[in-house]
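Appendix B, record 7
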Amino acid sequence: MIAGGIVAALVVGGFTLTRAHEGGVVGVDTLAPDFQAIEIATGDTVDFRDRYHGQVTLLNIWATWCIPCREEMPSMEALYKDFSARGFKIAAVSIDDGSSDKVRAFAAELALTFDILHDRSGSIQGTYQTTGVPESFLLDRDGRIVRRLIGNHDWNSPANRDLIDHLLADGS
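Structure tokens (predicted):
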């Protein structure tokens, strides 16, 4: 018997961990769950689905205290600079508790130009069934998860650039 209805499955080839729960499994080829977070640039609460629907989007869940998160941000920024003119979006959601000031300072220190969001409650971790930070979800224009990665990742690698180029071309 499985306690609490949770099933863990490790998928080889993408190192994808998923867990089943009442709302279903969040994983490759599923619709990305909606959530709300504060946009650091404006202080406004944004609805993820309303804001990013129809866009190829990298959703990254991270924290300012996370060293691997800091290490992967420059590759995300490079990718964003090269593909943003074609409609590629990045929504980096900090799970830091408290004020957004430290999140804002982190983004300024690294000169990040993609969207930085803040979920003070950290509820996105339950919504997306994450195992820690960083954890990333690459979404196609329909809001379906194409790739899920746990841990620090080189988002500017040739393989990722090719994948994003392909996703952007599919909707042109």
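Remarks on this record: The longest helix spans residues 67-83. The chain has a mean pLDDT of 88.
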